[in-house]
Amino acid sequence: MAQPSIVGYNTGPEMAPAATWWPSISLVYPMFNEEENIERAVYFAEAVLADITSGYEILIVNDASTDRSPEIADALAQSNSCVKVFHHQRNLKLGGALRTGFSKATKELIFYCDSDLPVDLLELARAVRIMEFTKSDIVSAFRFDRTAEGFVRTLYSVVYNLLIRFLFPVRVKDINFSFKLFKREMLDKIALESEGSFIDAELLIKSKLQGFKITQFGVDYFPRNRGTSTLASPDVIIKMIRELVAFRMKMRRDIRAFRVSAS
């Protein structure tokens, strides 16, 4: 049963109910070898989205998986018209998968999350409320505790976030965490180009430079317990750093102009 309002009501005798915002949402799941996770991810997405949206779609981008993920995703799409699957013939990494998903999105808001569900999707309702309450264009979650993913990955994350803060005028606590809700209309002004995991940072940095408002909030983090993550592999990290350096060189004038205007 749908909730009567995302923001609730003031029930005083002299007050009219608050305006209700029922946004439609495109949820994007990038997927590579997630046969143990994708069915569960879609199940929880359906349960949450049906309760907080005026309409939704679940977009699964199969990034050339080599396990049973494509067959499972296709079966999910056949059983629910709100689920759509897009297949890559070759592996395009996280950036390529997200750019495909974002380009296929048709709803007012786009929400991106990993298909191993590192966060309770009930937090999406909270993110929508925060977006309306703060009049934000992007709501980005950060993990209260990252240590559950192990010392090495925690160290990588801390160093990377500090590097982003030093090089770019964006102050986000957990820039690569896969929980971002944003308005689809932003993509008219932001062209995403990253092929690898730098796409998270690119989205937030370009949004900041364009004057879009970013709001952060904390969530509990649930480390992967099914399947295998490739996000901390040396190849992924090297590619991300290369894209970071190239992006910094390309955007140096825009960054300088932004800092001058903000001073």
Describe this structure in words.
- The chain has 263 residues and is α/β, with parallel strands linked by helices.
- It has a 7-stranded mixed β-sheet, with helices on both faces.
- It is globular.
- It has helices spanning 38-52, 69-79, 93-104, 123-134, 151-167, 199-209, 234-250, 252-262; strands at 25-31, 56-62, 83-87, 109-113, 138-143, 179-183, 214-219.
- The protein is built from 8 helices and 7 strands.
- Helix 1 (38-52) links the parallel strand 1 and strand 2.
- The model is unreliable at 1-18 (pLDDT under 50).
- The protein has a single domain (25-262), classed as Alpha-Beta Complex (Spore Coat Polysaccharide Biosynthesis Protein SpsA, Chain A).
Indicate the overall shape. globular
Counting structural domains, the number is 1
Q: List the uncertain runs.
A: 1-18
Radius of gyration: 19 Å
CATH H-tier superfamily:
Spore Coat Polysaccharide Biosynthesis Protein SpsA, Chain A
Task: Give the total of beta strands.
Answer: 7
Strand order of the largest sheet: 3-2-1-4-6-5-7
* Helix content range: 40-55%
Strand content: 15-25%
Class derived from helix and strand content: alpha/beta
Average pLDDT level: 89
Assign the CATH class: Alpha Beta
Distance between the termini: 49 Å
| Tally of individual helices | 8
Give the H and E element order: EHEHEHEHEHEHEHH
What is the CATH architecture descriptor?
A: Alpha-Beta Complex
CATH-assigned fold name:
Spore Coat Polysaccharide Biosynthesis Protein SpsA, Chain A
Largest sheet: 7 strands, mixed
